[in-house]
Amino acid sequence: TEDGGASWKEVLSLRYHDVGKIEFANEQVGYAFVYEWDPLGDGGYKTSKLFITNDGGDSWKLLLSESDNYFNSYTLHPDNSLYVASEPIYGGFARISSIRKFTQLNDESSLTQVAHFPFAITSIKFSPSGNIGFAVGIQGNKGYASSHKLAMRMSFDKGATWLEVNPLKRFTGFINTGVVTVLSDRMVYFCVDNKLIKFWKP
Question: What is this structure's pTM?
Answer without folding.
Answer: 0.75
